[in-house]
Specification:
Layout lengths: L1 H45 L5
């Protein structure tokens, strides 16, 4: 009976870890998109002039 309790706790902890990884990847993706938008908006003004 104790093995099922331990297995249940392990699965809950594993599920929580996967959920946290999903949230971290989501935040990283949003940050990269925001940086790309900022770079695109500032790109033409800060690009060096070509001769």
């Amino acid at each position: 009976m104790g093995i099922w309790l331990e297995l249940g706790v392990f699965l809950v902890i594993l599920g929580f870890g996967v959920w946290q990884l999903y949230d971290v990847k989501k935040v990283i993706r949003e940050r990269e998109q925001r940086q790309a938008r900022e770079k695109a908006a500032a790109g033409p003004a800060s690009a060096p002039a070509e001769h």
